[in-house]
């Protein structure tokens, strides 16, 4: 995805944990942080407390959605996904993308990966990898202060 492109559809999840959410639910409301993760990704698990901190700190000003992107056959087990989500306090909507349809619509190839959209649903920041949470926070705050 390129900066300023509109948020892709969130349709195609094979399972949904916590709350169902659509692209239309997110646009016009508040900025949105979408993070891709996988149960087999150590860096994802390390970063999850910081993602949860952002979710809780900006509770009423930021939408947060988790997308589980399997990296192998071992990542397809819904019971394992549910267990890891629960143990890492992922209470935001989790779209389980076992067929990679959402992943493909985002043109995403990485976990963890972070997409920040403004309240109009335009991509304002993308980053991948386990480091750089300070940069993510800085970009997120910039978008939040515009809202």
Task: Give a nutshell description of this structure.
This protein has 147 residues and is α/β, with parallel strands linked by helices. 33% of the residues lie in helices and 20% in strands. It is built from 5 helices and 6 strands, in the order βαβαβαβαββα.
Verbal overview:
This protein is of the alpha/beta class and 147 residues long. 33% of the residues lie in helices and 20% in strands. The protein has one domain: Glutaredoxin (3-Layer(aba) Sandwich). The chain has helices spanning 23-26, 42-57, 78-87, 101-105, 133-146; strands at 15-17, 32-37, 63-68, 94-96, 113-117, 123-128. The model has no long low-confidence stretch (mean pLDDT 96).
Q: What is the overall silhouette?
A: globular
Q: How many separate structural domains?
A: 1
Highest CATH level, the class:
Alpha Beta
| CATH fold naming | Glutaredoxin
CATH homologous superfamily annotation: Glutaredoxin
Query: Share of helix among residues?
Result: 25-40%
Distance between the termini: 22 Å
Mean pLDDT, to the nearest integer, reads 96
Can you lay out the helices and strands and say which pair or pack?
Elements: E1 15-17, H1 23-26, E2 32-37, H2 42-57, E3 63-68, H3 78-87, E4 94-96, H4 101-105, E5 113-117, E6 123-128, H5 133-146
